[in-house]
């Protein structure tokens, strides 16, 4: 089953998510009180209500299910991340402080978790996998990372574990970083004449100009839209 959840902007520096659950009881009669208690029990049991998570810097995640649960049957969930403003030196987005997607294995069989990119649209242009960007799986100590590279910014999806035994839980978090005037050694290249240049500066200029033009031409559209898919499947190990 595939369902799409959308990560929308709110106008606060990048998109902070708000955890707001407001229950207003207007009736003071016993029937009203019993009804509220009943609804609370139903919500606690199924946890299928819409909620907003504050992520960081103008990012709001809207998720239908409180948890993604694996119950011995493969699950496939698709999420859409929209970032309104994308430019060199922007504040880093990181959901690690809260707002990631919880995953729980409530079945009896161990589960494997993987992340895939369905599509990326950058400044209104659909990007091509393998040509405009690549998705790499990396192991960083105990964390599993899925890194989207090929741009002056780095988008990373992180799992504390991509293998869940029965009853275990983890969370999928993501971060986006665009360093301005990057001096990382990987930025420096050598041309045919043996001259060294900073490729990151060139990329900043190129994509920075595209960012500006897009913001002028399409002020109400998101600069970056990523549709990603998370797969939770039975483990063979």
Oligomer: single chain
Overall tally of structural domains: 1
Strand coverage percent: 35-45%
Low-confidence stretches: 1-28, 39-67
Distance between the termini: 24 Å
Q: What string gives the helices and strands in order?
A: EHEEEEEEEEEEEEEEEHE
Number of helices: 2
- Main sheet specs: 8 strands, mixed
Overall average pLDDT: 74
Task: Tell me about this structure.
This protein is of the alpha+beta class and 237 residues long. 15% of the residues lie in helices and 41% in strands. The chain has helices at residues 30-46, 199-217, and strands at 4-9, 51-54, 59-63, 68-70, 75-83, 93-94, 101-105, 111-122, 125-126, 134-140, 143-149, 154-159, 163-164, 169-177, 188-190, 196-198, 224-234. The protein is globular and about 60 Å long.
Summed up:
This protein has 237 residues and is α+β, with helices and mostly antiparallel strands. It has helices spanning 30-46, 199-217, and strands spanning 4-9, 51-54, 59-63, 68-70, 75-83, 93-94, 101-105, 111-122, 125-126, 134-140, 143-149, 154-159, 163-164, 169-177, 188-190, 196-198, 224-234.
Keywords:
about 240 residues, alpha+beta, seven-stranded mixed sheet, about 15% helix, disordered N terminus
Question: What secondary-structure arrangement, pairings included, does this model have?
Answer:
Layout: E1 4-9, H1 30-46, E2 51-54, E3 59-63, E4 68-70, E5 75-83, E6 93-94, E7 101-105, E8 111-122, E9 125-126, E10 134-140, E11 143-149, E12 154-159, E13 163-164, E14 169-177, E15 188-190, E16 196-198, H2 199-217, E17 224-234
Parallel strand pairs: 1-5, 4-7
Antiparallel strand pairs: 1-3, 2-3, 5-17, 6-14, 7-14, 8-9, 8-13, 8-17, 10-11, 11-12, 12-14, 15-16
